[in-house]
Amino acid sequence: MTTVEDHVTAAGGRYSAKDMSVLEGLEPVRKRPGMYIGSTGLSGLHHLVVEVVDNSVDEAMAGYCTQIDVTLLVDGGCRVVDNGRGIPTDVNPQYRLSGVEIALTRLHGGAKFGGSGYKVSGGLHGVGVSVVNALSRRLVVEVDRDGSRYRMEFVDGGKPLGKLELVGPSPRGRRGTSVTFWPDASILEEVNFRAQTVMERLQVYAFLNAGLQINFRDEREGAPAPMTYCYKGGIVDFVKHLNASKDPLFKKVAYFKVAEEGGEVEVALQWNTGYNEGLYGFANGISTIEGGTHVEGLKKALTNVVNKYARGRGLLKEKEENLLGEDIREGMCAIVSVKLHDPQFEGQTKAKLGNTSIRSLVERATNEKLAEWLEENPSEGKLIISKAVQASRARVAAREAREATRRKSPLEGAGMPGKLTDCRTRDPRAAELFIVEGDSAGGSAVRARDPETQAILPIRGKILNVERARLDKMLKNNEIQALVAAIGAGVGEEFEVAKVRYHKVIILADADVDGSHIRTLLLTLFFRQMKPLVEEGHVYCAQPPLFSTVVGKEKIYLKDEPARQRFLAEHPNHKTEFSRLKGLGEMDWEELGNTTMDRAHRTLLRVDIEQAAIADEACSILMGDDVEQRKQFIIDNATEIRFLDI
Q1: Which of 322, 414, 437, 551 lies at a C-alpha separation of 20 to 30 Å from 621?
Q2: Model-level pTM?
Q3: Rounded CA gap, 309 and 332, in Å?
């Protein structure tokens, strides 16, 4: 018989209770920040702002807050101020801590766990502002409540400098909470906030909370002008905003709102002349980018209502098959926003809603209210059916093209594009596919690659702009056929991410304007027709260097102009000239391998979708027909181009 004490570790030593440790307070967050904010890069940094703003938005959803002010400070801090009730300042008798201390220093501490503080909130796990405290080098909280102002300060990841103190009366009878924090550079890789990212998030909050005013100010040098977001129309204005970069099929927006004891559902829909579906779900103000029961309920009811309406109006003949959901949703832009008391999200990132009761509520509301809207708006209803019928015919035409591009199995060579130089491994987790611009660069990449794990697919110049093409036309394009066949997971509605042959799909294009255009076309293809590939983090952009120079006998490569300037700042006496690398085709295979493909030296940017609606809008503006809108977008974002927030 073996006792507990007889167990040993792999290294041969004894493993007993003394070898175990318990992380207390906020220590778990600092040890494993990715578990709480997703990453320690830019997305994680901006998640800190979101967590603080979430608390203020919860006050707004509860009916106590009408204004939120967000300020990026000159010294790198961020301040969020609201006019809600203010965090409780009295002492909890059980924990002998003030409400402020519980909120700021205790994970899973707050008023969102079945108490009477909030009927609806986005802060499911109660870790929000405490996580921000844990990942800040300094945090100051000020609370105006019951005519008095209280203040407390924390440093070095949540260590209090003292107890909560009363500092005087509230100015002009103000109430609410102010949280100012400075991110900790010893934990986070990035601590410089990107104004555009913050502004995009705040605008979405304002759309989802009709009448809530959110003010943004950036006090740093060269900052954009202050902005105020406030939308009386709420999600109706949201849909109009998203469709502004497209061509709406009609001016009206279908809108309905239904509230029951178990929750509330709000839906806005409008169709455009394009071919892409834009259906975005939110639960208690949280963007559920992976959908969930509320999105499923809307899809099911929408298909049922539109087919029933089409039959009743004689727009679908008796012998014709019902329209599929994908036919009806072609060109649809829709927001479904639900509020419920006890949301069941999957994980702290809250990407998918799981409550079954809300599915029934959304279905009932859509079956009743959308049917009424269609009866009251027959002209719009006829246009929706006509577009769906055209989509149905295109779907049938696309079936054969799709079959031609579908790979039979990951182990078979049949159906693979002729230009693909595949890797030997059959393990998708280890395999990488480099999509390389041009045959010349493709040849160099083949020589430079690791044949065990790296596959090369050269493409000829710019692929078809899928933003302006239906699936049937898209699948006639040779370059897109090759891409779909190589990746091996299908396309469009039938895309199955589990069948992806490579867990890293890497775009390798020149570091110039043409290369950027090719990247954008490929990213649009992946976002529109292989969206799970992006959502699962399988899409990357390689970073070929723009400059090279020599230090002693060693050749140094620099990614871009900012990297060159940093190098000069660190080497003020450097006199050797810099060579500008004009393109992948002009690099020999050894240079390409050492700088861009070798895992030990390369830099890859992973493409993430943090806000699907924002990404949709960016794709439509950049790849659509409105030249003036595209020009303005480029002007607004030219100084801050990056691929993590497309």
Answers
A1: 437
A2: 0.71
A3: 17
How many Cβ atoms sit within 10 Å of the Cβ of residue 2? 6
For the stretch 65-88, what's the b/e string if a residue is b when 16 or more beta carbons lie within 10 angstroms of its beta carbon? bebbbbbbbeeebbbbbbbbbbbb
Annotation marks residue 330 as catalytic? no
Tokens of 412: 């078979």
Q: Which of 437, 479, 591, 610 is catalytic?
A: 437
Among the listed residues 5, 375, 376, 512, the single catalytic one is 512
Q: Is residue 22 part of a domain?
A: no
- Say if residues 84 and 73 touch (Cβ distance below 8 Å): no
184 and 74 belong to one structural domain: yes
CATH code of the domain in which 204 resides: 3.30.565.10
Please indicate whether residue 514 is annotated as part of the active site: yes
Q: Clarify whether residues 522 and 559 are in a common domain.
A: no
Lowest mean pLDDT among 12-16, 217-221, 237-241: 12-16
Structure confidence by residue, pLDDT tens digits, 59-93? 998 889 999 999 999 999 999 999 999 999 988 88
pLDDT higher than threshold 80 for residue 578: yes
CA-nearest of 149, 178, 179 to 166 is 149
For residues 63 and 111, membership in a common domain is answered with yes
212: which 2 tokens? Answer: 């809530």
Same-domain check for residues 184 and 99: yes
| CA 189/CA 46 separation, integer angstroms | 12
